[in-house]
Amino acid sequence: MKEETTFTLNISPLRVWTCLSDLHAFAIWHPSYRFEDSAALHRGMGLSFALFKGEYRINTTATITRHEKPRVIGWSIAVRGLEVLDEQYELEASGLGTQIRHTLEFNGFLGRLLGRLLRRGLRQTLHLQDRAFVKFLKKEAQGGLSGINRHRRRAQSARAARKATHG
Questions:
Q1: Alpha-carbon distance 34 to 23, whole Å?
Q2: Which residue, 20, 81, 23, 85, is CA-closest to 51?
Q3: Nearest to 8 by CA among 66, 69, 92, 67
Q4: Distance (Å, whole) CA 154 – CA 54
Q5: What is the pLDDT of residues 115-127, one digit of tens each?
Q6: Is the pTM value of this prediction over 0.85?
Q7: Domains of the chain (ranges plus CATH)?
């Protein structure tokens, strides 16, 4: 069973790639994934993800299956050694922005069984993940997260110092 969404943002493919390939940043924006390591092709890494609205977390392994900067990143998720799910983000320049194709595909017996059980909410889950990623990218593009520059920090420090001395 395979599900796919596509959306376009007015953000450069390289900036989108930078955010997607930083697997540690998934903890900031992704509703359920927490990667334990950096992206490297064919390398397994710890992954925990939330089920049932975060009430239950599963610790498992993800292996990077595609890592083609700045075009594609994908991974395979295994549960107890059995491959269950392939997930991939594919980026393509589109005018001044980026078209993003997000794909989830259940594999193997266990994966197909889970896919059937989760079929109703799968598209909704993809849209939820995509909305969270778009929100993160927009904040990142505005400099709202880690991108605060030196001048902004100086201005904030000066304001805080003035506020402390004047009351």
A1: 8
A2: 85
A3: 92
A4: 39
A5: 666 666 677 888 9
A6: no
A7: 2-166 (3.30.530.20)
